[in-house]
Write a structure and sequence with these properties.
- The chain has 431 residues and is mostly helical.
- It is built from 18 helices and 2 strands.
- A hairpin with a 2-residue loop joins strand 1 and strand 2.
- Helix 3 runs antiparallel to helix 4, helix 3 runs antiparallel to helix 16 and helix 11 runs antiparallel to helix 15.
- The longest helix is centred in the first third of the chain and has 33 residues.
- The N terminus is likely disordered.
């Protein structure tokens, strides 16, 4: 073996993990920005003079862009590669946050959130694409789970740490600093990341140049399992977005008479549980040789945890904290559907298929945040503190009835999902 070949072989694992880490940091960044409105509900309602429904619409601007760009994001990554595409996406995400930070009206703030969501739309698909391009097929589920561990730490960072940061500075200044950090990440991504491993050239992951958007989408649309998996993903993840991403902090502060910071720390336990559960369920399903049954029991137990946290009378703070952690831990099993959709579709359409699934998560997010705000407004008793509407615990409990409803629907869709036994339906390499 030549000296430079030996050196490449030694450097390969380090390079693969470095590229994965930068992609995972983008996931961290994406989730921190996605959940950031949850610790600024009162601040944003006061700053822009808006109601709960309007705040829900402002937060949902992120998901509108996320939804529109999911399938195009997958196609662009499959065709042009992650390095060029994702560098621009990170820069767009950061620029949107800077616009949001400097907004003098709710309209401009909405534009900023929309652009942030447009850039963030590439984060998960990019990371999963690079895992496919740099790591063996058998490691995909575990690496995808590990990706979500980093992502959920970003969601944790967007809760209590961000609340403390905003309290120490000011929300606009905090968002500006986070925006500039994103521009630095974009520069590092461009310098360090490469699209695929040197020995990856025989794998069919890149869409042929002549393939049209509709041709690629049609192949995925014709597979019924793509639809059932995507519906399951959307319904299973929606409660995490509604409770953890926007309204949970305010509910806990009101219902348990806790400070905003402590409430944010409590909600953060959802994401800590998710961070631990995601790689565990990836590893466990690989070891068990099954995906569907793991998702089934994880979703059932996660449903029981979040329902008990909201509706069980006389819940103490410590029990609430435990239920938050258990909800995040068990519901993280839903992430296996991302591995399954890769297993059932052509490898050349890996990112496009994952983008198709992510679009369903965005649809539910775009609908659920404004819907929850609208229900809260209907039950509002007129109480205002520091210029922001304060909703009663009863109103929150009525609005949160959608959460167990979503989880029940996710369980019903699981009945239509076929077990893959951790095997790809198509060959991952050329003959």
């Amino acid at each position: 073996m030549k000296a430079h070949d030996m050196q490449d072989k030694l450097n390969y694992p380090f390079r693969a993990w470095t590229i994965w880490l930068l992609s995972a940091i983008f996931m961290f960044y994406k989730y921190a920005l996605e959940v950031s409105p949850s610790v600024m509900t009162s601040t944003l309602m006061t700053a822009f003079g808006i109601s709960g429904a309007s705040l829900g619409n402002l937060a949902a601007c992120y998901f509108y862009a996320y939804l529109l760009l999911q399938i195009p994001a997958g196609l662009l990554l499959d065709r042009f590669g992650p390095r060029k595409t994702t560098t621009l996406a990170i820069a767009l995400c950061a620029a949107g946050n800077l616009i949001f930070a400097g907004a003098d009206s709710v309209f401009v703030a909405g534009i900023g959130r929309f652009l942030t969501g447009a850039g963030a739309a590439f984060a998960a698909v990019n990371c999963l694409k690079l895992i496919a391009n740099w790591f063996p097929f058998r490691q995909f589920a575990f690496m995808a789970g590990l990706m979500m561990t980093i992502a959920m730490f970003g969601a944790v960072g967007g809760q209590a740490p961000l609340a403390a940061f905003i309290k120490a500075t000011e929300w606009r200044q905090a968002m500006e600093i986070i925006g500039f950090a994103g521009l630095i990440l974009a520069a590092l991504f461009w310098v360090i990341v490469r699209d695929k491993a040197p020995d990856h050239i025989r794998e069919k992951h890149i869409v042929p140049a002549r393939a049209s958007l509709m041709e690629c989408i049609r192949k995925i649309f014709k597979n019924p399992q793509s639809w059932w998996l995507s519906l399951y993903s959307g319904f299973a993840f929606a409660p995490v977005m509604v409770f953890g991403g926007l309204w949970g902090v305010s509910f806990i502060a009101e219902g348990f008479n806790l400070s905003h910071t402590i409430s944010a720390q409590t909600v953060s336990l959802i994401f800590i549980g998710f961070a631990i559960g995601a790689p565990f369920f990836g590893w466990y399903s690989d070891r068990l040789g099954r995906r569907r049954s793991v998702m089934l029991w994880g979703t059932i137990l996660g449903s029981l945890a979040i329902t008990a946290a909201i509706y069980l009378p006389g819940v103490s703070f410590y029990v609430l904290s435990g239920l938050m952690f258990l909800f995040g831990f068990f519901i993280s099993s839903f992430l296996l559907c991302f591995t399954m959709i890769r297993e059932i579709n052509l490898p050349m359409l890996a990112a496009t298929a994952i983008g198709f699934m992510n679009a369903f998560d965005a649809v539910l997010g775009a609908i659920s945040d404004p819907l929850t705000g609208m229900i809260l407004d209907l039950g509002w008793d007129g109480k205002i503190v520091d210029g922001a509407r304060v909703f009663s615990v009863t109103s929150y409990k009525v609005a949160f009835l959608t959460l167990p409803g979503y989880l029940l629907l996710s369980l019903l869709t699981l009945l239509k999902i076929k077990e893959t036994h951790c095997k790809a339906a198509y060959p991952t390499t050329l003959p």
